[in-house]
Design goal:
mainly alpha, Arc Repressor Mutant, subunit A, 3 domains, two-stranded antiparallel sheet, 10 helices, flat
């Protein structure tokens, strides 16, 4: 068998098995096809593995598999699957059909236009459901049915939304159990409701910030101040900014001019 999730994958809607399914193939290809057809889904049908159990070498097996593909019994490719972490990954697939298919059928199958009625869709179980189902293995007094787990899962999900970890949830549900627990469902429902953690505090609003040019002090958006300097200062001729602070030397010089003018006016008045 191949690693879980890999290996042979049977195509849907195949005709029942008969003794003449591969009579149209050459003897070697017919023998290999009959062997592949009897393998369970998930079996490793790579050339290297087949060479270990069949009397043909890898070269011959590679040629035979290519001919089975040309005859419409086999397709090899890749399939995109969602991973448990929420991302996606591409895995190698080998699709097998006892019934020979033409290119149009395989194209429709690859597009997903062929219903796969022969294989039920896998059921996905939430993190909350898995935790509840595991309680019975860890604490037999809290064994739940599948329906119980499905009904209680939204309550556990709310704990997760409020920052609780799996360890915290398990401790809250299993600590200090009464003896006996008459109804695991009612007991867990009450604890999940009564011990629900408080809602987390809202995230603090970020402080309001403003950038200024390091040379002239003019405020601006970050994209207008690359390196912390405005365009005027980078070009060597900063524009006059009405709100820019006046240097102390300029203030002193201006005051000196005013005093001088006042003194001159006083002298002329006395004369």
């Amino acid at each position: 068998m191949a690693k879980p999730g890999y290996g042979k994958r049977s195509a849907p809607d195949q005709a029942p098995r008969t003794a003449h399914d591969f009579a149209h193939l050459p003897p070697r290809e017919a023998a290999i096809a009959a062997y592949l057809d009897r393998l369970d889904d998930g079996a490793d049908i790579s050339v290297k593995t087949l060479a270990k159990v069949l009397t043909y070498g890898q070269c011959a097996l590679g040629t035979a598999l290519n001919r089975l593909q040309q005859a419409g019994h086999l397709r090899r490719g890749r399939e995109k699957l969602a991973s448990a972490s929420g991302g996606n990954r591409w895995i190698t697939r080998s699709w097998w059909s006892r019934t020979a298919r033409d290119d149009d059928w395989w194209a429709a199958f690859i597009r997903g236009d062929v219903a796969e009625e022969s294989r039920p869709a896998p059921q996905t179980r939430s993190r909350a459901y898995i935790l509840l189902a595991a309680l019975g293995r860890e604490t037999p007094a809290l064994s739940l049915s599948a329906a119980d787990c499905a009904a209680l899962a939204p309550l556990v999900t709310e704990w997760y939304a409020r920052g609780a970890t799996d360890t915290a949830v398990r401790h809250a549900l299993t600590a200090g159990l009464p003896v006996p627990v008459h109804s695991p469902f009612a007991f867990l429902q009450k604890r999940l409701t009564a011990k629900l953690p408080p809602e987390p505090e809202p995230a603090p609003r970020p402080p309001r910030r403003l950038l200024e040019c390091a040379e002239c002090g003019v405020p601006g958006r970050p994209e207008a101040l690359p390196g912390g300097v405005c365009a005027g200062c980078r070009d060597g001729h900063a524009p006059a900014h009405g709100n820019a602070p006046v240097p102390a030397s300029a203030v002193h010089a201006h005051v000196a001019r005013i005093r001088a003018a006042i003194s001159q006016h006083r002298d002329r008045t006395l004369v």
